[in-house]
Each structure stands twice: as C-alpha cells, then as structure tokens.
Amino acid sequence: MHVRRSTVAKRQTLSANARRALVIALINQGRIHSQSDLVELLDDEGIDVTQATASRDLDEVGAVRVRDENGVMRYQLLDPASEQRTRMNRVSDELVLSMTSSGNMVVIKTPAGGAQLLASALDRAAANGRLATLIGTIAGDDTVLAISKSANGGKSLSQQLTNFINGNQKSISKGVR
Known about the structure:
This protein has helices spanning 16-28, 35-44, 51-60, 83-91, 115-127, 154-165; strands at 63-67, 73-77, 98-102, 105-109, 134-139, 143-148. The protein is α+β, with helices and mostly antiparallel strands.
C-alpha cells in the first residue's frame, strides 16, 4: 500500500538532470516497479511529472524492467559494461521468434512480455545512430512494429535488425537508399 507523505508543503521544479539523479536513487533503492510508481514517488518528493516524462526519464537513465531474485518486476539500472548487460545482449536473439517485413515496416514476434524490452533496445540503438534507418518502434506484449525511414526499406531494416540482434554491429549504421 502506498502512503503519501503529508509533510511535502511545497512543489519543486528540478532540472531534468537533477530529476533523473533522483530517479536513479529510487531505482537503486528497489522502489520502482512501474512507471506509475515512479510518478507517485516523485510526487511524494514534491515533484510533478507526467507518466510520459517518467517513461522518458527511465529510458534516459538506461533502466529496464526485470524480475528480481524474488520474481517481482522492478526497474533496474544496467551498467553498459556489466555482466548482466552482456548476458542480455547474448540472449536478445531469444526475444525474436519471427521477423516479417513489408513496405517500410518489420513485424517482430517475441515471447509474451518481451516486446517492450526489445523495442526499447531498438529505439535506444536508433537514437544513438546504431540503427540509422529505424524511425522508431511500437510495442505490444508480444509484437514489435519497427518502421524504416525509407518507403520500401522494410527488407533492408529486417536484415539490419537481425545483425543488431545477433551482435554484428557492422553495416547496421549504413543508410538505406
């Protein structure tokens, strides 16, 4: 049960960096199970954010939702050099059951619950320029829709996604004509 503190009298406005530092601290304390948890915990600190802002903050700090040792879903930070991140990259091909392209789209089927994890990784790679032809993704529970910048780039994007998922980073950042 979540109990709100009544002692917060004044609302705060923090810079994005300061707010994200607080998000990291809350994640490290193991207190964030969902985006709504983050919104509520920040509200308890006197900081108003929307769920969209909470989602962006979690993405920016590199938080992923995983099961802890007790089987409870919570957000955790993954250090890029950590063994857990390396393990995630190795098993990421297990997240893809099938991939089908058409026009400028690629439909990726995943096991139940895997789509958002895969889509988040693909969106981060696109934002960092590692998947230069990817505009973005839409994720459900077990399906990711990846969209290419090129009107007929679905087939090429499918190959780039396969290379990315299998850890072959060469040719991924080459543009589609």
